[in-house]
Amino acid sequence: MALPQPAHATDEILSRLAALHPKKIDLSLARMERLLEALGHPERRLPPVIHVAGTNGKGSTIAFMRAMLEAAGQRVHVYTSPHLVRFNERIRLGAAGGGTLVSDAALADALDRAEAANAGAPITLFEITTAAAFILFAEHPADVLLLEVGLGGRLDATNLVERPLASVITPVSIDHVDFLGPTVESIAAEKAGIIKLRAPVVVGAQPPEALAVIERVAARKFAPLFVRGQQWHVQEEGGRLVYADEDGLLDLPRPRLVGPHQIDNAGLAVATLRAVKLPAAHDAGLLQAGILRADWPARLQRLVNGPLVARAPAGVEVWLDGGHNAAGGAALAHALCELEERYSRPLVLILGMLGTKDVTGFLAPFSGLVREAIAVPVPGEHAGLKPEDVAAAAAGLGIPASVARDVGSALERIGRAAVVPPPRVLITGSLYLAGAVLAANGAEPA
């Protein structure tokens, strides 16, 4: 599986900016505060901000909110990370009739301006590119900015928005322990760092220990809480999404995005819009349109055609998901069980993971569900685990495992075994692997 060669005007600028700091991640607000001051504080001229932190579900929740708001005719800016294929995916500029990814020319201009203001001082790539995004968002009118935290929350580069419309915290679980701490409580404290004085906080399903931390921080900030299971509820009933809060009951369709966890993400999106009374919040038709329209690449995405998929034998189902932590593995396994109930097929995992991830924790929910796992390297300059180590972790859970040189080779290997019905293949374990798969398959997000 060959990686695409750099082809965009911003690649050279991004490579130059990446050299400004010896570390890829160095959580701090000081460098960002200095740069934003030099830029004239674009963060103070942003449209109303909904700030989203959490371990899993941030991107999908944002995708639902964006689709709902756009169904109501709103212009919606969006900032997410990481990108899958090219950097422009991180910045979506809102416009009437729907937003578009930032153009190369506009992105290059904003990056150049941020670089000039930074004047060669140490700064991480995420920090300086977030500053460039703030320039773009401040200079292009919109009704709402959906702003995703990069890592953690308290010391994240996005956390210099002083008065968000709302803070949203998706489910918290163990991940990035080197930066956020080893416990759910320590991680929740970092995520809760986005809570601001008197700004509403909308909270997805949480472990009790995480919720306790969030509640304490919200109390100190006099921030109204809207917690799933308390102020709002969501569940699936009869193939429908049923949402309830003090304003009433909504009977909505099941999301187009696959998996029971998307019920939770869609419910959190509805709760957020209703908490701050944004357009679409109380219009069932607009909420329905958003739920059915929302799309988020590499989240249980079915790959139907393309040059990479063509290497699989006829009849094989190929799915792609960037899940990479224990909670993500559990959600994926649950979704695959649901697919198995609808139409039974042998399940094969093609798996690549970074060295910072808990392979056993991610794979444990698949034990007994998977016929085999094929480990592959994560392409690109990432600290990926050796496929042999990934395969050993799978074998330790009783999952038959082997190694392939890349995803395409793994798909071809599946074709050498006569399996009836043809298997269902899930390519997973890393967003970086997912991005490489989309690029190789000619399916660049738009």
What layout of secondary structure does this protein have?
Elements: H1 10-18, H2 30-38, E1 49-53, H3 58-71, E2 76-79, E3 91-93, E4 100-101, H4 104-118, H5 125-139, E5 144-148, E6 166-169, H6 177-180, H7 184-191, E7 201-203, H8 208-220, E8 225-227, E9 232-237, E10 240-245, E11 248-253, H9 261-275, H10 284-293, E12 301-303, E13 317-320, H11 326-342, E14 347-351, H12 359-363, E15 372-375, H13 387-396, E16 401-403, H14 407-414, E17 424-428, H15 431-440
Parallel strand pairs: 1-5, 1-6, 2-5, 6-7, 7-8, 13-17, 14-15, 14-17, 15-16
Antiparallel strand pairs: 2-3, 3-4, 9-10, 10-11, 12-13
Structure description:
The chain has two domains: 10-293, 3-Layer(aba) Sandwich (UDP-N-acetylmuramoyl-L-alanine:D-glutamate ligase); 301-440, Protein-Tyrosine Phosphatase, Chain A. With 446 residues, the protein is an alpha/beta fold. Helix 3 packs across helix 9 (261-275). 36% of the residues lie in helices and 16% in strands. Strand 10 (240-245) and strand 11 (248-253) form a beta hairpin. The protein has helices spanning 10-18, 30-38, 58-71, 104-118, 125-139, 177-180, 184-191, 208-220, 261-275, 284-293, 326-342, 359-363, 387-396, 407-414, 431-440; strands spanning 49-53, 76-79, 91-93, 100-101, 144-148, 166-169, 201-203, 225-227, 232-237, 240-245, 248-253, 301-303, 317-320, 347-351, 372-375, 401-403, 424-428.
